Amino acid sequence: MATPYGLGPGFSRDPIPHWGTPTNYGALQRENISQRFPSTCEWVLASKEYRDWLHGQDHTLFCPGEPGVGKTILAAAVIQDLQGLDGPMIGVAYIYFSTLQAGEQDLQNLVFNLLKQLVPGLRVIPFYLEKMIDGKHEIPSVRQILEALHATVKLYSQVFVVLDALDECQAGSRTALLREILVLQSMFQTKIFLTSRFDPDIITFDALILQIRAHEADLRRFAAGKLFLLLSLIEGVTNVHEEILSKVVESANGNFLLGKLHLDSLLSQRSSQGLQSAFAKLSSGPEAHKRAYDNAMERITSQSRERVDLARRVLAWLSRTRCQLTIIEVQDALATELGSSNVYQDNLPQAVDIVLACCGLV
């Protein structure tokens, strides 16, 4: 298995200082993989392009796709698959890019994070890394980090690097990172998996290309699981399960985000008449996302005054933050009061109330 071998005596499991790199990509991976619906993404892992990249001579697999088709969950599934490979000294490192963290995701932080993920799997500490650890109170330069990264990758028989949402990385940092990765590929056994929106500036070197689109079978599994509970709660509609399922999949048109918005609209109903009305409003086409979001906002504003206020506060926090927040961080933020940084436990909303108030937008 591609698991860490452990460092020599006297070294901790995480010997590298943090040096101002706040993003915990391991936590993001756990969060993203938890959102993967059972048996989805298998079509990519079984595709000829993925198998050729994994076992063949091609070093880069580029997976472009429109917003909302599930690229990030797919990247999480690929990371999980790579981490389960059999073989000695297989390293896996990954970056989840986000426009919210664009200022932090410069070349120095990016290559440092790759290094930090690969070091725990080493049997020995490379010389360049020892020098960095000895000077742990001084932030190393990009050149020093790259030297340590090269020395680290050299000790692996194969390294896989997964870069998700590369289009959300600032152009300068993206160009610099891809340049350094090409250097790694030219010197060591390094393979790269990329996801991005369609952008001609993203990929300028030879790569296998596999276009990402929400697979119909994946959409059906996802929608069927969500609809089962709803249809069991509302009397007289169990016989239209297949009709509703087919309409959701068809109107989603290969887009997980749109499918989720449609499902959230249906899941908010508690009567046969309400379900039929929401079903009739399901739309597809260029304006489908806007109409689905407008529908969600209508559902938010039709709630009690307390829930409307809660939803607005949640959305205000999430739209203004510079990083992704966990549900606990959102709860803490909502429990503060103007002019104070204290978290008042009596003000702490329940996670389920936050999710329900936002009608599927969170």
TrEMBL record:
Gene3D superfamilies found in the cross-reference section: P-loop containing nucleotide triphosphate hydrolases
Signal peptide: none
Chain ranges of the Nephrocystin 3-like N-terminal domain: 40-197
Keyword DNA repair assigned: no
Keyword Ribonucleoprotein assigned: no
Swiss-Prot/TrEMBL keywords: Repeat
InterPro entries hit by this protein: NPHP3-like_N, P-loop_NTPase
The protein's name: Nephrocystin 3-like N-terminal domain-containing protein
